[in-house]
Amino acid sequence: MKYDVIVIGGGAAGLTAALSASGQGARVLVLEGASRVGRKILASGNGRCNLANAGPARYFGGASLAGSVLKGCPVEAVLSFFHGLGLVTVEEEGGRIYPGCGQAAAVLDVLRAECGRRQVEIRCDQPVLGLEKTPWGFRAHTQQDAFEGRSAVAAFGGMAGGKLGHDGSPYALLTGLGHTLIAPRPALTQLTAEKGAVRGLSGLRLPARLTLCRGSQPLEAAQGEALFTDYGVSGVCAMQLSRRAGEMLKRGETPTLYMDFTPMLGLTKRVYDRVPAQDPFQQVALTAAYLQKRQRMLSGKDLLLGLAPRLLAERLKGQSVEALAQSLAAFPVQLTAVRGMEHAQVTAGGICGEEFSPDTLESRLCPGLFAAGEALDVDGDCGGYNLQFAFASGLTAGKWAAARKR
C-alpha cells in the first residue's frame, strides 16, 4: 500500500491538496477520520460556502505565511481551479465569493466528483493515529492498516466546530516529528456577557456598531447585525471581535463591549464589516439631539414607540433623554468570556507556520512533510478568508508534495 502522496484529512485543504497532487500525476491517498469528507465545507457560510474573498487579505494568526501562500496562489488561481471543475461562482458585497447556486454542497460535489475522475483513493473512518518518517518517506498508521507515502500532507483541520472539528490529538502527528504547537483557542465565536447587561433582551436582533474597549479606550470595532442571547451577544460583528476579547480575558483583563444602535435609528449608515475603532461615546450628542427633537412631537412615554423594538424599549423605559441617548449610542456590555471551540468557526493557533516554507509549505524540520489549512496557526476574518487559505494552501502543498516523487 504505497502511494506518492498521503493526505491526512479530507476537508477543504485536504481535498484540494489531493487534486493538486493527482494533477501532477501522483498516486494519492486521502485518510479521513470521519464517516465522510468535507463536512465543514457543507456547514460554512450558513450552508452557502463563502469560499473566498476578492478583497485585501485579512489574517491575524500566521499573517505573514498566509500572505506568502496567497501571493503564490491568489484568489484568481483558486477560482480558476474551481471553474475548471465546473463550479459557477458569484461575487457579492465586500468581495465575498459564493457558489452561484447558493449551496455549499455544490463546492463539495465538484471536489468529490473530480477525485473520482482522477482516481484519488479516499478512505473514511480511518483517523491517522501515528505518522513516522521512514527511509522511503512516511508511514501513516490507522487502527486498521499502515500506509506508505513518499510524502505526506497534514490537512487535518482545527478543533473549531464541535463535531466538525477534532479533539486536538492530530497535532501530535506533527509535534512527534519535531514541530511546535501554538496553543489552539477559539476564534470567530460568540461573546459571553455579564448577565445583567443582557437580561430581558434574548432573541433581539438589531443593526449595531460594536466597539471593543479596554475601559473606554477603543481597540477594535465591527458593524452589522448583532443578536442578543441568554448568554451574551452573537452575530458576525460580535464574532469578529472575539479573538481580541479572548486574548484580553486570558490576560485577566475585563473588556467592555459598547453597542451603538444609531444605525437602527437611521442616524448613521448601515455597514456589514469591520470599521475603524472610535470613541464609543462619539454618537451620544447626535442621538440626544435627535431624541430631543422627537420629544417635541411625542409624549415621553411614546418616545421609543416605532423607534426601538419592544424588548429594548421595555429595558430602557423611564430613562431621561440624556440617559436614553447614552443607552442607544453606547450601550455597555461587560464581557466575561468567549464561547468555546464547539461554537467557534475557526481555530486560532495550531502547528507553527514558521517551521514551513512559505513558498512550498514543506516542513523545514522534516523534508517531505507538508501542511495546509487550519492545521497551521493561520486564522482570518469572516468573509471567506479562512476557506480561501485552506484551498490556496492545499493547492500549494499538493503540488510540491507531488514533486517529491520525481
**Which CATH-level-2 architecture of the largest domain?**
3-Layer(bba) Sandwich
Find the count of extended strands (DSSP E, 2+ residues).
21
- Mean pLDDT reading: 96
Biggest sheet architecture: 7 strands, mixed
CATH level 1 name of the largest domain = Alpha Beta
Quote the distance from N terminus to C terminus: 19 Å
The residue fraction in helices comes out at: 25-40%
| Spatial extent as radius of gyration | 24 Å
What topology emerges from the helices and strands here?
Elements: E1 2-8, H1 12-22, E2 28-31, H2 39-43, E3 52-53, E4 59-61, H3 63-72, H4 75-84, E5 89-91, E6 96-99, H5 104-117, E7 121-123, E8 130-133, E9 138-141, E10 146-154, H6 171-175, E11 181-187, E12 191-193, H7 195-198, E13 205-214, E14 217-228, E15 232-234, H8 236-239, H9 242-250, E16 256-260, H10 262-265, E17 273-275, H11 284-295, H12 310-316, H13 321-329, E18 331-338, E19 346-351, E20 369-371, E21 379-380, H14 385-403
Parallel strand pairs: 1-2, 1-10, 2-7, 10-20
Antiparallel strand pairs: 3-6, 4-21, 5-6, 8-9, 9-10, 11-19, 12-15, 12-18, 13-14, 13-16, 14-15, 14-17, 16-18
